Amino acid sequence: MLSSFSNFLKYLSAYLSFYSLSNRVEAWTRDVAFLLRQEGRPVVNLIPNKAKERVMEADWRNTDRAINWLRKEAINYTKPFVLYLGLNLPHPYPSPSSGENFGSSTFHTSLFWLKKVSHDAIKIPKWLPLSEMHPVDYYSSYTKNCTGKFTDKEIKNIRAFYYAMCAETDAMLGEIILTLHQLDLLQKTIVIYTSDHGELAMEHRQFYKMSMYEASAHVPLLIMGPGIKANQQVSNVVSLVDIYPTMLDIAGIPLPQNLSGYSLLPLSSEPSKNKRKVKNLRPPWILSEYHGCNVNASTYMLRTNQWKYIAYSDGVSVLPQLFDLSLDPEELNNIAAKFPEITYSLDQKLRSIINYPKVSASVHRYNKEQFIMWKQSIGQNYSNVIANLRWHQEWLKNPEKYENAINQWLKTHIASQFE
User: Fold this and answer.
1) Which of 51, 97, 136, 404 has its CA 20 to 30 A from that of 357?
2) What start-end ranges are recorded for coiled-coil regions in this protein (predicted)?
3) Euclidean distance between CA atoms 232 and 271, whole angstroms
4) Are 26-234 and 284-354 equal in CATH topology?
5) Cα Rg for the chain, rounded, in angstroms?
6) Which residues have C-beta within 8 Å of that of residue 40, sequence separation ≥ 6?
7) Are 74 and 83 in contact (CB under 8 A)?
8) Which of 272, 141, 153, 264 is nearest to 211 (CA)?
């Protein structure tokens, strides 16, 4: 058993190292004139065991460690404590069936968790025809290996397995809350539950993240504890950058003036418990930006309660998107051209917050510089290493073509340095 676990850790370490390298190289080369699949086709994998509760064993081990710490350490604390527990679920699992080098495209669970999902309630998301997709969306769908044909059953299974994985995640949170209750700590502990991203689960013909669509960018954020109003749903748009000032506020630490985020306590606290008069400086929008892999342009989102505006690159070379979320919650109708005044107003607001054309230009330069440094660092192994990243199944069909495309891209960088 110990040997098996040791081998798993070695495999996981090697996988994470490889996956990180692939992510970086794919992001650096997103402007290269080629299109390569970087993930295995999303699939499901079921453990047919009705009693198997601990599927993601690494997360359960960390949950057990957190519980043990609460029982042995926190219970004896005379001062406030902070406990952070990070879980990998409900990320998709690695997909070794896709070949030697692979991404994470397997939705994996057991019958124990799958039986908790109401299959009849699962909706199959609507898709635009491939020819009508936004060019950045098409690039994302292709690199995520989602442009092929999927049956309704396949799509529904992926979504069902994802919900089952969420159920397992929720159970881990439940164990933490139960332990706090058993130790009489729950009534004096504030619990914050959130995620760094969502999961598309085949919405917009994609899985995973790297998108400004709601399924990817809209994350859970739950707060409970003393002074927090129970059963309250806050309609304001908030951001993950609000977590840090919220924790400072909980600790009674004055908030620095240069923070990007805002404390969530004025929105969530009971009026009687929030005696401090806090001036409402929170803007009616949130900002998100992305510059990584599986997307071939720097992406910026300005989100209000009603509108979502998505700008790309320099704001000119790639058309923007505008969605009225009150009328189009599935984000299928880009109305940027139909409502130019709203599009212009939101774009000007976005530019007042961040000079996104300038940021995009910096990212372009950074990507080439980093790629050149990486290429030089691996020397004669370059051709072999780059051919065997996550895109290896397509790359190896015509390696000369793809290396030439990169060389052409690098020439433009060299030329621009001498202009």
Assistant:
1) 404
2) none
3) 13
4) no
5) 23
6) 95, 97, 98, 99, 102, 103, 105, 106, 145
7) yes
8) 141
Are the C-beta atoms of 335 and 250 separated by less than 8 Å?
no
- The rounded distance, in Å, linking the Cα atoms of 4 and 359 is 47
**Chain Cα centroid distance, residue 179:** 29
Consecutive sets of 10 residues in the chain, 419 residues long: mean pLDDT of each?
42 51 94 93 95 97 98 94 96 78 87 97 97 98 96 98 98 98 97 97 97 98 95 94 96 92 90 53 94 96 98 97 98 98 98 98 96 96 95 94 97 57
b/e map 392-416, b = 16+ CB within 10 Å = bbebeeeeeebeeebeebbeebeee
List, in sequence order, every residue forming a beta bridge with 309; answer none if it has no partner. 302, 322
CATH fold for domain 26-234: Alkaline Phosphatase, subunit A (3.40.720)
User: pTM for the whole thing?
Assistant: 0.91
Return the bridge partners of 287, or none: 302
Cα–Cα dist 62/80, whole Å:
21
Residue position matching structure tokens 């397509």: 394
Tell me how far apart the alpha carbons of residues 231 and 101 are, in angstroms, rounded to a whole number: 46
Q: Which residues pair with 228 in a beta bridge?
A: 269
Taking CA atoms, 321 is separated from 208, 283, 286, in Å, by 21, 22, 16
Q: What does the pLDDT read at residue 382?
A: 97
> Domain residues of the chain, as ranges?
26-234, 284-354, 361-419
pLDDT at res. 269:
81
The pair of structure tokens assigned to 67 is: 């519980």
Q: Is the peptide bond before 90 cis (omega within 30 degrees of 0)?
A: yes
